[in-house]
Structure formats: structure tokens, C-alpha cells
Amino acid sequence: MGQEQSNLIEEDTPPKKLSQRSLSGIAEYIKHGCRGRIVVMTGAGLSTAAGIPDFRSPTTGLYANLARLNLPYAEAVFDISYFRQNPDPFYVLAKELYPGNYSPTISHVFIALLAKKNLLSMLFTQNIDCLERQAGVPADRIVEAHGSFASQRCIECGRSFPDESMKTHVAQGIVPRCTDHKCGGLVKPDIVFFGEQLPAAFHANWSVATTADLVIVMGTSLTVQPFASLPDAGPDDTPRLLFNMARVGSFGTRSDDVLELGDCDSGVRKLADELGWRDELEAEWRRVVGDKEAEKQLQSLPEREAALQDEVENLADQVGFGLRIDDATSHSETTKSDSEEDFTVGWDAVEPTSRLGRVIDSPVVTTATTASPPHGSDITQTGEANSREGEDLVVGRDALKPASLGRVIDGPADQHRPETKNDGASVPEVPAGESTSSADPRSP
After folding, report:
1. Among 125, 265, 284, 291, whose CB has the most other CB atoms within 10 angstroms?
2. Residue 258 lies inside a defined structural domain of this protein
């Protein structure tokens, strides 16, 4: 369905199932009309209050801030082909984004409360941060459309890798290898990288969205297919609620659509008030995250945005530190052959702390390329311009986004780059139900 203004429902059009098109009408419907079949769909905007950056915000996004690093293109850090050649950049970033560094928001806890009250049929999330699990949403009620850090396996033989061992490797900055020494393949979290298939669970649970009594969409720009089609999967008279900074997708075109525009947490609190759950929700949230974290998340929006920018810059700096080789090491590299000097630093020859290569003071590579992000993200441009609250992918605490820093080090000089549109973003359309696999770098 399109987003043209002419398609928006007339204000005087009566709803079919709701008593009124408002949070009050939604609350009444939840209490008296739902049969435990609420489907929730979330994106990066759900986690920004937790300090996790999204991927595509112009200034605070992960890609924008990783663009200054020595990568062939910012999204290479989540490209499976690049990962096979150079896993180090991803693991430097993974250390900063790993679960445990961030805490759930009150919106995450609201979803857990729906599950506790036997109202949640399924949560579909694009985020890879595992905050839903931390909040208490049962694992069997979560479909991580873009994967997550919750599990990991060898990319060659598929053998699973122990959780505790993975945590140790990430913390120590050591790239994990398959426990089968005959294989020795690289181990990667089950995050969907560009060029990989979507999880089977996503397709297997698609029908759940078609039978929902109520669809709640939170903090996503609905630009990544096939996820973007989920809210439209059910009948036209299915009530739908949007918590987001801007209208997205086909919201506003159906008689039972309710749009609560603004940050997710504020909207959730208003709905909790209407439901009479506010005290219970606030108490459960503080129990989960603690008073100190709760107060931190309650900062005013300007303060949160400033803190988010600081966090993004810090993350980019951490990745940059790992990618830098000091002048002394740089000098020693001059003994290498001319052909090797042109584009490599020799990963294996350097200490782990500087394994990602040195930052070269050469012009920034300004290709019009911006491959789609990994899973935990919103990517295909089928909706309106991304909003701050509805940005693509969230990985860690504040929305991270890569940046670009010049020449490729220790990677192929002629990496495949995704086709681009006039805005410079990679926008390969993916029909609903298909994978993001492609010869070009794609959003996981």
C-alpha cells in the first residue's frame, strides 16, 4: 500500500473494530476485544533510549560514524564476503555492542508485560541487541528477523560455538574459530550479514501476523523488506497501532489505524495509563534495569541525543583504535614488496591490539554506496524518510553507524559495491518472503 496523502483515511471515517481511533480505543480493545493474539513488530527506535545507536541516522547512526574508518565501504563490517577475508573489524565493533553493555527500555518491558498477561502472540524484531530477552520476553515468542548475538556458529561447517567461550573471545578481542580443529572455520554470531539468508523462523512464523487481533509497530521506518510488509499481512480491519517519530508504511490508510507519533517510551507510558498498568509497568522496568539506569533513560531528549552522539563517537573511536597501526609498525612495513604495500598492512604480522590496520591520511572514499545494514535493521527504501525514532538497525546501545576513512587496508582493492540510487543508499528491493542474499553487499 502506498503512502500518498490521498490514501489517508478521512478523519470522520468510523473505525470498524475500535470504539475510537485513539490510545483509549486501543486500550479498551486490548482489555475486551483481544484473544491473546497481539503481534508486535519493532525496530531500532525501540532501543535508542537505551543508548544504542541506529544504523542510518545522518549524524548519530553507526554507518555515518564508521564511514571514516579504513573499510572499502562503511557496511563492509557487516558484509559476509568481507568478513571471510577480514573478521577483525567486525569483532572490534562486536566488543562494544555485545549484550550486557545495554539495558532494556520501558518499551521492551511493556512487550514482556504483554507476554506475562498472555496477550502476546509473537514479537518480530529487526534489532540484534537481545534486549527483548533481557526484558523478560520468552524466547519462544521472539522472531529475530535479522538474527542476534544470542547464538553463534562456524560459517563453514555450521557447528555451534559455546556461549561463554564466545563471550571470552569477544572481550579479549580474539577472533573465534571452529571447535572442530579439522575445520578451523571462522565463527560468527547468528546476525544476518549482507549476502546471507534470513532466519527460517521469520518465514515459518509469517502466518502469525496474518491472524493477529492487534498489530503494534514500534520504532521502525519500515523500509526493509520483507519485514516492511508484515504490518500489512492481516485483514484490512485488523486494528494497528504505531509508536514512531513519523508515519511510516501504510499506517493511516485503514479505518482502525492509530498513530501515536513521538518517542516509543512516551507513547508506551500513555497506553499503560489508559490500560491502568502504569504503576505495574514502571515497577517492573525498574526491577529489570535498576534505578540508576532508569534515571539515565529518563533524561530529557536533548540530553539523550547528546549522550547518544558521545556514545557513537566513542564506538567509532574504539573501532578506529583497533584499525590503527602506530608509526613504528608502519615504518617497519616499508620493507614489504611494492605490490603488498599498495593495499595491505599484513594483518597477521601485527599485534592483536593493532590488527585492523593503520588509518591512512588519504582522501575519503566518497562512493555513492551505502549498502544496507545487518539484521537488526531497517533497510529497503519502501517507506518515507527515516525518522530519528524509526531508524534502521540497532546493534548496541546508541545507534551506531559506520563511517569511511580512505583507502582499503588488507582487503581487495575492487570490492563489489551495491547498486545505488540518487540518494546514495543501496536499495535493492526484496520481495516479501525472500532472503537478502545477493552478490552485492546487502543488509543482513
Report:
1. 125
2. no
- Give the contacts of 175 (CB within 8 A, at least 6 positions apart): 87, 88, 91, 169, 186, 187
- Is pLDDT larger for residue 238 or for residue 68? 238
Residues 396 and 341 in one domain: yes
Residue 372 forms part of a structural domain: yes
* Pick from 160, 277, 291, 267: nearest CA to 217: 267
Total count of residues recorded for the chain: 444
Owning domain of residue 167 = 147-191
Q: What is the CATH number of the domain that holds 178?
A: 3.30.1600.10
The answer to whether residue 32 sits within a structural domain is no
Binding site, annotated residues for Zn(2+):
154, 157, 178, 183
Do 398 and 319 sit in the same domain of this protein?
A: yes
pLDDT tens for 266-310 read 999 999 999 999 999 999 999 999 999 999 899 855 566 666 566
pTM for this prediction: 0.68
In the residue annotation, 375 being an active-site residue is answered as: no
Q: What are the pLDDT digits (tens) for 99-122?
A: 888 999 999 999 999 999 999 999
Residues 146, 331, 375, 416: which is the catalytic one?
146
Annotated binding-site residue numbers: 154, 157, 178, 183
Q: Where is pLDDT greater, at 94 or 19? A: 19
Query: Rounded CA gap, 284 and 137, in Å?
Result: 13
Contacts of 323 (CB under 8 A, 6+ apart): 69, 70, 89, 92, 356, 357, 358, 359, 405, 409
